[in-house]
C-alpha cells in the first residue's frame, strides 16, 4: 500500500514539473515573439558632415561601409534595417546647423555630426530638448561636459588628452615655455586652454600666444609668425584646422622659422593630412621636416587590418579623383555606426519603442522660422542614451566603452616624427602609462614596470636634420642681452671694473665659464651699475630688471624672498649665509664656581660614584677573611673601604690587597680610573680654553636681545633682514661702507660710538678676516640661499644657466675659480670658535664600566664558590642534613667572618717540623 502511494506521488510530481516547464516555455516564446514583433522594420539615423574635407570625405565612406555591414549582419538588429540620411554641410557652420535640424525632422533616433565645436555646441542644445543623442567622432575640443550637454557623446578621443600628451613631451625634453599658435574659435581656444592647464601641472607654461583668424589669410599668418619669431622661445605648438595647417608651415618656411633650433609640435591635424593625402608633394614635405605630430592611437587587431585591406576597394567605387587614405577619424566614424547599432539592439531588448511626440513650437511665443514646429521629441531618448553610455564592445579602433565623465576608456596617442617622404613613430603616450616606446596595450597586457633607465621616446630628427635636442630658446636676431654688473668699490675680488671698462672678478669668471657650457651662443653686453664711489643698491638694480631696462644682472647678488618676486634667479653658484663677527676677548673664564663639574654629565658623575661604592664593597668582601687591614670594628671597616676605593683615583692607597681575586679586580678598576681621570683633565682643559676665546656675543639671537650697536654693509639686504627677521630697531644699526670703517668702528667699541659686532655675508667676511686676526666669527651661520644671476621673469635663459651652473659645480673648475679669486688669507683659519666643548657622556664609557662590573661579578662568584666548598669540608655535619637552615646560615656567616691563614704550604710544613723538633728537645 505504501509503495503504491509513493509511486502515484512521484508520477504526479513529475507530471506537474513537466506541465510547469511547458507553460513557462510558452510564456517565454510569447514574450520573445512580442519583443521581436515590437521592433520596427527600420530605424532612421542622421549624419551631417562636410563631404569635401579631409575628415568628412573619409568618414562618409566609412559610415556607408558600416551601414552596409550592420544591415547584412542579423546578429545585431535582426530584421530591423538601419537607414541613414547624410547631409553635406560644406564646412559651413550655419549650414551645418540647418542640415542637422532637417535631419531631426525625419524622426532620427540619433545624429552623427557636430563636425566642429561651433556646430556641436549649438546642435547639442537642440538635441537635449528633443532627447536625441548626438554622436560626434570629430568635435574633440575638451570643453563639452555631460552635465551641460547630456545628449552629446564624443566617440573619439578628446583633445584634453592630446594636450596632456604634448605637455608630457615638453616636460620630458626639459623645456619650460612654449609658444601657442592657434585659431580664434572654440576648437582653438579650448584646446590651448587645456594645454595651458596641462603645462601648469608639470611646471611649464605658454610664454606667448599667436591667435589666427578662423578665415585666415597668408598676410594674417605672416604678421603673427613675425611676432613669434621676435620672442626667444623656439618651441611652437600649432593647433589649427586641417584645412589651414599647411599654409602656416608654408609661411614659416619662407620666414626661415623651420631651420635648426626651432621645434614644431603640430596637433593631430597634420597626421590626418598625411594619412589622408599622403604621400605629400616634395615641396610640401621639405617645409615640415623634423616636425612632431600626434595621432590618436588605435590598437592593432585583425578587424583593423581587415578594414585597411578593404579600404582600397571601398575608395575605388567613390567619385574621387584621388582616392583618400584612411585616417583615424574614418575608423571612429565606422565604429560610431556600430556603437549606435549595438545600443539600439540593447534598447529593443529592454522593451524600447521608437516613438515621437509632437511639440509644436519649442518655446511659447517663439518664431516658426525654419519649421521648428515640425520637430519631435524622441520618447525613448533617455533609454537609448543610457544604452550608449553602457556600451562595451570592440570595434576596428579598439575597445569601445566610456568612463563616468563619458570619455573613451584608456585614451592614447602615437607620437610621429616627419622624416623625408614619410613619418616615423617615436613613441606613445597614454594617460595610464605616460610616454613609452612600447604600445600602451603591450604595457597593459604585460603589466610592464618600466625603469627610469628605459628610453621613453626614440631618437628624433629635428628641423635642420639634427639629432641634437634643441634647447628651446635663443637670442633674438641682432639683439644683445643687456646685462648689468655692480660697480663695486670694496671687495673687488668678487666683481669690479677697471679703468678700461673691463669687468673681472670671481662672479665674472663664473659667468663666463657657465656661458661656455650652454649649447648655444649668447650675445650680451656687460653694463656697469653704480657710480664707482659707493657700492650700489642691489634691490634697485633688480627693480630695473623687472622694469625691462636690463635683461639680467651678474654679480654677488643674494637670493632674498623680496627679490624673488621681482626677477628669476638661477641656481646659486656660491653658498650664502650671514655671519656675526666680533672681537676676540682676552679674559678669565665666565664659568661659575662649579665649573669643575662641567666635563662630565650628571649620569657620568652618578656612574663614577656608584662604581666607587661597588668596587669598594667587592674588595672588602674578597679581602675581609685574609687581610688584617680590612678587619676590625664595623665603623673602622666602612671607613677603610671607602677610603680605599676613593684613594684609587689618585693611586695613594696604602692598603695592600692580598687575595688573587682582589688583585684582579683592582687591576681592572685602576685601568678604568686611569681612563676616566685622563679624559676629565683633557675635557676640562678644552672647556677652559674655549671659554677664554668665547665672545660674550654668542649668536645673532643673543645680539638681537642686547642693546649693543650692530654694523652692516651699506646698500645690502642685511638691514632689512635684521629689522624684519630679528626685530632689531633701526636705531641700533650702523651702516658701514668699507673694511676700514668697520675696523674703526670695532676700535671705538660699543660705548664710544663704535659697534659691538658686525653682520655680513660670509664671502665678504672671509675676505675681511683674512688679515684681521683680532676678530672672529661667533655663533652659527644664519641660513641664506646664496648668490645667483638674475634674469627677467619667465626668461628661459635662467633655466639653461641653472643647468650649466650645476654642471660646472660637478667639475673642479668652479673650485679652481674660487681658489684663483678668493684665496684664503693668513687669519682665515681662525674660523668659528666652538662656544661649548662637548661634555663627556656616559655612553662613551659604558663599555669600560661593563667590563669592570663583569670582573667584579665573576670574582664574587668564584669567591663564594670557594668559601662554600671550604665550609663544607670543615663542617661535615652540614652536608648530613641534621642541622636546620637557620643554624647553617649562622655558622656560614661566622665562617665568612673568621680570619683564614693563607701561608704557603711549604712554609707551613717547615714550621710544623721546627715546632715538633723543639717539642722533642724539650
The tally of beta strands, per DSSP, is 29
Morphology call: flat
Taken as a percent bin, the fraction of beta residues is 5-15%
CATH fold-level label of the domain at 42-156 and 301-362 and 369-395: Rossmann fold
CATH classification class of the domain at 42-156 and 301-362 and 369-395: Alpha Beta
The assigned CATH architecture of the domain at 42-156 and 301-362 and 369-395 is 3-Layer(aba) Sandwich
Order of strands side by side in the largest beta sheet? 7-6-8-9-10-15-16-17
CATH superfamily of the domain at 42-156 and 301-362 and 369-395: Response regulator
Give a short overview.
GO terms for molecular function: ligand-gated monoatomic ion channel activity. The protein is an alpha/beta fold and 922 residues long.
Which descriptors would you attach to this protein?
922 residues, alpha/beta, Rossmann fold, Helix Hairpins, 31 helices, 45% helix, disordered N terminus, transmembrane helix, glycoprotein, disulfide bond
Structure commentary:
Among the domains are: 42-156 and 301-362 and 369-395, Response regulator (Rossmann fold), CATH 3.40.50.2300; 159-296 and 411-442, Response regulator (Rossmann fold); 595-691, Orthogonal Bundle (Helix Hairpins), CATH 1.10.287; 695-785, D-Maltodextrin-Binding Protein, domain 2, CATH 3.40.190.10. Helix content is 45%, strand content 15%. The protein contains 31 helices and 29 strands. It has an eight-stranded mixed sheet, with helices on both faces. A five-stranded parallel sheet has the order 2-1-3-4-5, sandwiched between helices. Strand 25, helix 23 (718-724) and strand 26 form a beta-alpha-beta unit. The radius of gyration is 48 Å and the shape is flat. It starts with a helix and ends with a helix.
